[in-house]
């Protein structure tokens, strides 16, 4: 641990079977009008919508609704919400759903009272937020992004074919988030494993950077191990409460800024996936899995000791009688085997990409430099070609 | 992970070589008068006192001083500080030192405006805090207690021969804590290993409870491993910045409530040590080490699977061809060997206890029930007898 850092995460988490009971008390800190923000029909068919509306009514809140937030939330949807907030003087945006809904809520929070073009200002130029911020809170129903306890907001600009992630400061973090693992029982296996891989990818993006010894790396390993062990249980029994709760909490901890402290961090896989997602609308976790394997095989030799540690610590690869390269590659083979075991889709073809998209995806990918190797656009394209 | 929990930790951490530079900005959130609270001469001889005074002066603060806070801070010292706070209308208590100084500052924070007997009310009857709370902040110079990011406050009532710990709610947590690993370079080896064992004991108190699979247990294992690996480096080179910084951050994370979430937790070792400390004034971490080994050997069979996991995961004990008992006990032997390797004192005689104290220590020990076995007073005495 060498780099200086500041750590401050004031999101309040209510976790467990009875966590929704905390909503009433939390609401008393906010004004009269709540904008309920959600996706398509899932929360209506499982009864959560009715429960939340009932609590809001009992608390005497006026409710405005923004529904239909899509998996990769668009700037258009965000602006629809921003207008609703202004028109109704909304005092709390309550996101009920997964990361997309919460990301969208944060985008609305900073955009409602922004007098310039918010997308240009916040997601292209990454400017600071100076205008009024509307408080956000969340009730989580899908697991993976960690958006329930951070400032991240990934928004897709359809017209520009550009999916951009932005980390906002703590004022934009959810004030509170309610996490009930039971809400995730009905999430499909496809979405569950996509979410788990998203969690694991967040962890690996932080892990595969820097030399030296860092408590953050030990923490990351522990969350990777817990993710792997618990998804195996949940694949067998999707209603195993313990497994689903560990999966849920792992996802939150994997991206609440804790595990990346003092590290430069990589995030190149996410940069490539964002553009892949902008062109294909694929499930985020599946896109990450597709890109991860060729990416790590391409760069591992630049951070060989960390990939050896990954192989032995996470996958139990025995180092005896093997070269570092052999150990590292065996670890990546184990990761690939795990994606197959979970039914994670790693073929770009199946995810809706065509080969002619690749140059455009590669060209529009942001190149970072925090990991073990700074890629060129040609290398990005080469990695994408190996995903077919 | 089965138990519901709420998690909310709004302490802001500034960590690293240049972290003291953050003090000036933080001070702007508070009123005119700061009470600088510290121990004996350490911060004067290493120059930190002058640096802090200079920043306070430049920020235009009036400074009141409470010095001489002792290793096991007394109620008498706390009341001296409480009077200073009232008499000077102090708006921020800035603790510069280790856990004792910060614990004392929190005690002062809740006691200054308490109209009853604060010790009776808060540390004996564990009542809620209804009176005004004075904000606390810290600059950490000794590592181990985790007091820099939690609500814990352990106070010793000399007259009553009673050392009592209390966890206050988030309003009493330090508003910000500044952690510079370089401040710990001059801490003696004795104090360093005592602090590391304190960290490890916090982790083990949380770990050795419950059945089942819990992300918190994985997190605990990661911090135990990091503690063991890094103290070995620091024993060899006390000025290894990386090792000292990992040791420092491990201590904070081990007791900022994160790693115990969803667990019942044990804390019986701390209860015994508190009374041992009340009678001997021994270094907290050394007292914990002395009690831990006979305690865990006494109770391990009631939580055998967890002790097996401890042996294999933390100490690399090979399970092949061994019974669970053999594996578990081999893990505890490894823990004992580690205490010897670090020069940790585990003999009660060396820590200043005499055999005639034991019945009184045992009788006054609070018995909890969160771990694998609820002790009787006779068992506590038996454990203490084995520490000679």
UniProtKB/TrEMBL annotation, chains A, B:
Against CDD domains, the record matches this protein to: BDH
What SUPFAM superfamilies does the entry give? Dehydroquinate synthase-like
Q: Which keywords fit this entry according to its UniProt record?
A: Oxidoreductase
Gene Ontology annotations for the cellular component aspect, listed alphabetically: cytosol
The organism's superkingdom is given as Bacteria
Q: Which InterPro entries match?
A: ADH_Fe/GldA (IPR001670), ADH_Fe_C (IPR056798), BDH-like (IPR044731)
Cofactor(s) essential for the protein: Fe cation
- A GO molecular-function annotation: metal ion binding
The record's section on Pfam families has:
ADH_Fe_C, Fe-ADH
The record places domain Alcohol dehydrogenase iron-type/glycerol dehydrogenase GldA at 10-181
Do the record's keywords include Oxidoreductase?
yes
Domain Fe-containing alcohol dehydrogenase-like C-terminal positions: 193-386
Q: Which family does the record claim for this protein?
A: Belongs to the iron-containing alcohol dehydrogenase family.
Name this protein carries in UniProt: NADH-dependent alcohol dehydrogenase
